[in-house]
């Protein structure tokens, strides 16, 4: 039995590959592992059956035999630790890959999600317009530090790793905002990620879900 | 040579144990591992010498022989994976501990940091007062889900693990806000964490730093 992941039946990003199931699909594709996807609705996500898998009522989840997981970072890391291809073998480099996984999800992603929240959840608030530059400033500060580290390298620390996979996906979430355009090396970095065959396969798979369920034009 | 971690020379929390070196100290104490602490100033944190260890110019960092790490989550996880005591041995339970580590740092902590940012960085903004209830609502929603999962158990998933260590520390950051007071089971949960001898030793060690460097009363 292949592992089963959950994903949005109707992704709020309209098939742009920004939902967090994309990270798990991409990791599975990098490793050449088959998988199945169970699509769930916003309503189902908050029901007890799904909360038994994911206490916070979100996607993705991951089930593989006795292993049942939630949190995209945990799933990608678990895959990296149980299959070859996404983590270096040398112990010190393997440990550093952990640092980049957490940097992507706990240092770079939170201010990006803040901006998304401001644009979505606080859109109609009287302060929103005045507050956006503050949020953008926080993101730019982090991106500059990240670009300083990356320098002229292709990836964050030697060969492509789970840290790059998560970092690229986190940065892609900036796409709609245009904020990445002033950090050209990071734009190139995300493009390198998107050019990987495994990324393309994962992207096509989530895109197909959107297209299969999209209402037809009249 | 024991591992060396970095911590604030003058912690902005004034020795309350809320800075992120506390997580690493606690993990080291749980495992009974000796360690050394190198204290650094806010100025030094942003200098190239420290950025070579931590690209985002923060604390803590961790050096142990050939292993050099940043990100408190990565350090605690690395310690859990290289020494007994903070991760279950059974593979499925060990994988679930990963999920709780990421849940603490990527699902629970970001809205808590948002509230801290609002209180510190946006304190003087005209919108701050009106915006706080929105942030508190987001935190309460997550805490309710967490409390639902915890139920009457002592820890998140069987025995105390690195997931609990990080979750307790993340929740303690709510202390000054009083938001935890309406989630009694989580208040008890953090108290259980704080009662552990390893927590107490780690707390005392960071407290001693504050007291040693605090200006004397006139």
Radius of gyration of chain A: 18 Å
Q: Structural class of the secondary structure composition of chain A?
A: alpha+beta
- As an assembly, this protein is homodimer
Strand content of chain A: 5-15%
In total, the number of strands of chain A is 4
What's the arrangement of strands in the largest beta sheet of chain A? 2-1-3-4
What coarse outline of chain A follows from CA principal-axis ratios? globular
The share of residues in helices of chain A is: 55-70%
Greatest contact between two chains:
A-B, 44 and 45 residues
Q: Cα distance, first to last residue of chain A?
A: 40 Å
- Give the overall pLDDT of chain A as a whole number: 95
The main β sheet of chain A shows up as: 4 strands, mixed
Residue windows where pLDDT falls under 50 for at least 5 positions of chain A: none
Listing every helix as H and every strand as E from the N terminus to the C terminus, the arrangement of chain A reads EHEHHEEHHHHHH
DSSP helix count of chain A?
Answer: 9
Polypeptide structure, described:
- 2 copies of one chain form a homodimer.
- Helix content of chain A is 56%, strand content 8%.
- Chain A has helices at 21-30, 42-45, 48-51, 72-82, 91-120, 128-150, 162-172, 184-194, 197-213, and strands at residues 4-8, 36-40, 61-64, 67-70.
- In chain A, strands 2-1-3-4 form a 4-stranded mixed β-sheet.
- The longest helix of chain A is centred in the middle third of the chain and has 30 residues, at 91-120.
- The first copy, chain A, starts with a strand and ends in a 5-residue tail after the last helix.
- The model of chain A has no long low-confidence stretch (mean pLDDT 95).
- Chains A and B meet through strand 4, helix 4, helix 5 and helix 6 of A and strand 4, helix 4, helix 5 and helix 6 of B.
